[in-house]
Design goal:
alpha/beta, Arc Repressor Mutant, subunit A, D-Maltodextrin-Binding Protein, domain 2, 3 domains, 22% strand
Length: 311
């Protein structure tokens, strides 16, 4: 039986270097070690694992199935160790607490940079770890304790969380020059469904909103291309590959100046709410509670769409 205590971090690091470069020689050069030292470490790691991790080829290395499995685990372990070291070093220089925030793309692109910057100006000894995730992943992470605070879309159920309204944003239709809809000021979503769309990847709350609206209109959302970011959607629309729906604030002014046309949507769901969520506000660590209170209050006077409902 393999003893997990026999794995050491240096050997795992060298294994990753060898796997990524496909060469013990290049791994030794990158690690500033002799080839024999690296070769010995890999051999010891294979003895510990009790199986071959590489197939030795005339011109390099190839991972075995066991090696591929170990590579994924080794990366996770070293990433965790790096985060641990970073956290401990932060405390050594006076950081008082860490707050883990998971937020969807809309919040990260539009609102959180400004709000977090202003919060940290008031609380410089707090460290915030912000991760951009899909709304469903965010809700699960907060429920499971992987994140202290989540920011997610209003069409994702979160019955197990305490929620506060954070911001509201307005969705608009973005079309390329010369498109039939480029000449209209306002349209319904149903009237856009005769055209090809560029959308976000599967799992995003925005794509779910559009898909649900298409089903309600008894039409099909014709996704020609799916990408992973708002900027990528804009670039695809610029290239004439389809039309798309994005948060208004996320569309850079220079894109509109270059010829893309923003068309208002008449559908009520085009104005949506982003929510703050925690498992229990009373159970938050002090620094996380400060950020929770700050985001919940700071959003209200500066949000032109906020109605105050749902608190």
């Amino acid at each position: 039986m393999i003893n997990p205590l026999h794995f050491d971090l240096q050997s795992l690091r060298l294994f990753i270097l060898a796997a990524e470069s496909g060469s013990l020689t290049r791994a030794s050069e990158h690690a500033h070690l002799t080839l024999s030292a690296v070769s010995k470490r890999i051999a010891e790691l294979e003895r510990t694992a009790d199986c071959a991790l590489f197939v030795r080829l005339p011109r390099g290395l190839e991972l075995t199935p066991a090696g591929q499995g170990l590579l994924e685990h080794a990366r996770t372990i070293l990433e965790g160790v790096n985060r641990m070291a970073s956290d401990i070093s932060d405390f050594a220089v006076g950081v008082r607490g860490h707050v883990r925030v998971w937020a969807n793309t809309s919040a990260v692109v539009q609102f959180l940079p400004r709000d977090i910057a202003s919060f940290l100006a008031l609380h410089p000894q707090v460290r915030i770890g912000l991760e951009e995730k899909l709304s469903e992943q965010i809700v699960e992470a907060v429920e499971d304790g992987k994140a202290d605070i989540g920011v997610f879309a209003d069409n994702v159920p979160a019955p197990g969380l305490e929620r506060l309204p954070y911001r509201q944003d307005r969705l608009i239709l973005l079309v390329p020059p010369g498109h039939p809809l480029a000449e209209v000021e306002r349209t319904s979503f149903a009237d856009t469904l005769d055209y090809d769309y560029v959308g976000l990847a599967a799992g995003s709350s925005l794509l779910r909103r559009l898909t649900d609206a298409a089903v309600a209109a008894e039409k099909i959302l014709r996704l020609r291309i799916q990408v992973s970011s708002f900027d990528a959607i804009c670039r695809m629309i610029e290239a004439g590959l389809g039309i798309g729906i994005l948060p208004e604030i996320a569309v850079r002014a220079e894109l509109l100046g270059a010829g893309l046309r923003a068309v208002q949507l008449s559908d009520p769901w085009a104005v949506r709410t982003l929510w703050l969520g925690v498992k229990s506000a009373d159970a938050l660590q002090p620094e996380a509670r400060k950020l929770w209170d700050y985001l919940g209050q700071a959003a209200l006077p500066t949000d032109p769409f906020h109605s105050g409902k749902g608190r």
